[in-house]
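Summary for the steering committee. The consortium agreed at its last meeting that each partner would contribute one worked example illustrating the joint modelling workflow. Our contribution is presented below. We chose a case with several input lines so that the handling of multiple components could be demonstrated. No manual editing was applied between input and output; the record is shown as generated.
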Amino acid sequence: MYLVWHRADLRTHDNPALAAALQSGPAVGLVVLDPNILSGTSARRRAWFCRNVAALREAYARRGGNLLVRSGVPWEVLPRVVAELEARRVFAVRNSTPYARFRDRKVEEALPGRVAWFQGQYVQEPGEIVKPGGGPYTVFTPYSRRWWAAPEAQLLEAPGRFPPAALPPGYDLGSVPNEPSDVPLPPAGEEAALGALEAFLRNGLLLYHQARDKLDGSGVSRLSCYFTLGVLSPRLAAQRAMQAGGEGARKWVGELAWRDFSGDLLHNFPHMARSAFDPRWDALPWVDDAEVFGAWLEGRTGVPAVDAGMRELRATGFLSNRARMVVAQFAVKLALLPWQKCERAFRDLLLDGDNASNLQGWQWAGGLGVDAAPYFRVFNPLTQAHTHDPGGAWLRRWVPECGGRPEPYGRSVLDLEAARRRYLEAAGRVGRAN
Ligand code: FAD
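What follows is the complete predicted structure of the assembly.
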């Protein structure tokens, strides 16, 4: 008997750990509800995770397989399940966030020589793309050049019927908690994800490069919530898009390279989970103002594009990349709110919340040293709305009181021009001091 430990790979298609286990013999799946991850996570994200675990269990059952669900810390749960089932080995797809690496080391210590790791969370795994002389990239453009030149992975079909795996009589499979969500959730599971991918390839890919910056998010795939939990294979998505071809496809697959770059950065520079990628920027004079933070988080700053973004995110769990950049730049550069606090609160609102992409996104938008964007580039939320929501429909939808106009309405928590000057002076001082 073999055990497939699913973590951020809640799928049966293109899953190298599952394929290798089934090649070795009868196998059962396992999901561990890890309190170190789940207890600090928002209700909507727990609910989204649980719905996808339930869908994976159904996908197993349709093929005659079993997916076990257990609660506890993995380095205690896995040895127990391995002993109960007399499992010979554990197969898992590698994750590389700081906590995942700590967790996996503990599991390896508890089960020496019995865990086999596979790639499959990214198109190109963290740590794989290195400079010609060795060492990690810190800038996206040269990273992406090598990313595009890397060989394509061989995709793996979803398995057919599982060979029967005899469980001890009366063995408890464990139940998937029915967690409530405060936002409507997209359809869960890999069938829904594969269907959404195909629909996007048919209807959105061709013009993606032109439509992706619309603030209302109508020009993008909205597949991130599936990629985050590995419900959809990024390798399959990239290959299907490249088969379709065209400028839209190349741009879209380039965004998957950004996802990989985010994973690579956090893998190589784990300090960015706590402090600025370039630690000089930790010295910015942060203003931990509870009122401004609350206004930002609840979408009542008085700046329409910022409020529309935060209200949409709170109501749906999704926000376009363009709107994410607007709300993050407002928080970090204009309000000088402690970025870690904003990053954490923001991640909890996102169904696609992901450590690596969120940290990279916040540090990129905040000018904290990720990539080559100059710190003095400060988005003007008014211009952003003019350009990327020209008719004002998105603003009207989420902030009806602004009448679709991008200028501040009511009592604004910040004077935008004064805030911009304050940031530029402070950032200039930090830049000059080093
Ligand atoms: P599409 O435009 O259809 O792109 C396809 C896929 O490429 C996405 O599903 C995503 O997996 C990946 N991708 C696209 N843009 C980026 C990017 N800039 N960085 C990394 N991957 C990207 N993405 C997350 O998945 N989780 C997060 O927690 C997250 N937080 C962010 C926070 C900020 C402040 C910013 C600026 C960006 C953040 N992103 C995050 C990246 C990006 O905004 C989302 O991935 C994207 O908006 C998701 O929408 P989509 O699936 O329609 O993307």
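Residues 212, 220-224, 227-228, 252, 255-256, 258-259, 262, 320-321, 324-325, 328, 347, 350, 352-354, 357-358, 360-362, 365 surround flavin-adenine dinucleotide (CB under 6 Å). Residues 2-121 form a domain with the Rossmann fold fold (CATH 3.40.50.620).
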